[in-house]
Design goal:
The protein has 442 residues and is of the alpha/beta class. It is 48% helix and 17% strand. It has three domains: 194 residues, Alpha-Beta Complex (2-enoyl-CoA Hydratase, Chain A, domain 1), CATH 3.90.226; 143 residues, no CATH class; 58 residues, OB fold (Dihydrolipoamide Acetyltransferase, E2P) (Beta Barrel).
Length: 442
């Protein structure tokens, strides 16, 4: 008898579990950006891992970057999960695109959806080619979900006349009741619980996505402001290290900043291998130009181009120079961010470089640059007998470097401009502790 009761209880429990509807919920409450795309991808992956049936988006946004909004739209269209969006106040611009990519739309009382014209960071409406692209996205997304594509296009195009919906000359924005009347909303709901009731979900089992500390850190690192600061540190560290070779800590700062810049972008699929290699090659070319190749030529020019391109292209979505998804303004802004950051970095390094060298913190990080005789250090003054001696430049003199006289190396300074390594020289004079040389027969 007990076994039968246990069996009945077990079967009832299984039936109860089967009756539950698994729902995975996450939020889009800020500007649409790389961090939003990262969270959306993780939420979809987690929902599939948890065997969820429904993906629920709690949305309140005024829009953001179109390329990332399009990536989110595509992911929602391609997922096998049933998708529901709860517009909890605003679904403007890119938020409208994401909303109509969902199977079901519910709106809070007093909410709105629409106003999807593509605008710049200053709020100015961008040229027609951007609007045309956005209109196409809105149309095809609406069609795929059985919604009126003409209305979706009206969210973008002020010149479109839709009888009984919008007059010509205004971009369309729906209130909750208007969206319901024109079948762009499946119902009004003042809570997520109310959505479940209207969807006929009796026993919802809700798993809410909570961003980890790593998610938050990556989200912060992906913001344009932080990217600009990291570029400042990358270029500033390299510039400072090249100006004061052997310091070490400046190079460490630059390497850490580069890791913090590229790692999140690489994880998000923005920075491809070739873009990182492009940046590294640029740095190598600049080092070769400065230390090994006289003058400033092709390696220096290529180095600058590669460094700027590697940093800028990592900030935008592209498939090896295919920028169909990325807007022209976004690409231009990426290059401007990099160029301005580089100029600012070099300017700050020149202005504050001397003060940094003299600071207490700097002296704690590096070896003291003063070696006193009382501590056992001795410096031998070059002999006057070297005057008139001939040799050759062991390294390039820019104007200082190493010379070789009778197999002995000396530190020397050229008073005859740049002298390449291997060029014959003659000692012109000894001035204080400096060996002054010039080209032989010059």
């Amino acid at each position: 008898m007990k076994k039968i009761l246990y069996l009945i209880c077990f079967l009832l429990l299984q039936l109860s579990l089967r009756a539950q509807t698994k729902i995975y919920q996450f939020e889009i409450k800020d500007e649409i950006n790389p961090a939003t795309w990262r969270i959306t991808k993780k939420a979809i992956e987690n929902a599939k891992t948890d065997n969820a049936e429904i993906l629920l988006i709690d949305l309140n946004t005024f829009g953001g970057m179109l390329d990332y909004a399009d990536s989110i739209r595509t992911a929602l269209l391609n997922t096998e999960l049933k998708t529901i969006v709860y517009i909890n106040n605003n679904a403007a611009s890119a938020g409208a695109l994401i909303s109509i990519a969902c199977d079901r739309i519910y709106m809070h009382k007093g909410a709105s959806i629409g106003a999807a014209s593509v605008v710049s960071g200053n709020g100015e409406v961008l040229p027609e080619k951007y609007q045309s692209y956005m209109r196409g996205l809105m149309r095809t997304t609406a069609e795929s979900k059985g919604r009126n594509p003409k209305i979706a296009e009206g969210f973008v195009d002020p010149d479109l006349d839709i009888p009984n919906v919008k007059p010509k000359g205004k971009v369309l924005t729906f209130t909750t009741s208007e969206a319901i009347a024109h079948q762009f909303c499946d119902g009004e709901a003042n809570s997520i619980k109310e959505i479940f009731e209207k969807e006929g979900i009796q026993q919802p089992s809700v798993e809410v996505f909570v961003p980890t500390l790593l998610d938050r850190i990556i989200g912060i690192l992906l913001t344009p402001a932080i990217s600009g600061i990291l570029i400042l540190l990358i270029i500033g560290g390299l510039y400072f290290e090249l100006q004061t070779p052997g310091v070490g800590f400046a190079l460490i700062v630059s390497v850490i900043a580069a890791l913090l810049f590229f790692a999140p972008l690489y994880l998000e699929g923005l920075a491809a291998n070739w873009e990182i290699v492009l940046f590294v090659l640029g740095v190598i070319f600049l080092i070769l130009e400065i230390f090994l190749i006289p003058g400033f030529g092709i390696f220096g020019i290529l180095g600058i181009i590669f460094v700027i391109s590697g940093l800028a292209l990592s900030l935008v979505i592209n498939d090896f120079f295919d920028f169909n998804i990325t807007s022209g303004e976004r690409l231009v802004n990426a290059f401007l961010l990099v160029i301005i950051s580089i100029i600012a970095s070099i300017t700050l390094s020149v202005i504050f470089g001397g003060n940094i060298l003299k600071s207490r913190v700097f002296k704690r990080l590096v070896l003291e640059d003063e070696q006193r005789a009382g501590q056992g250090y001795q410096v031998n003054k070059p002999s006057l007998e070297l005057i008139g001696k001939q040799g050759f430049a062991k390294t390039a003199l820019r104007p200082s470097g190493k010379i070789d006289i009778d197999g002995v190396w000396y530190d020397a300074v050229s008073n005859d401009g740049f002298i390449d390594s291997g060029v014959p020289i003659v000692v012109n004079k000894i001035e204080n502790y400096n060996v002054i040389v010039k080209r032989l027969n010059s």
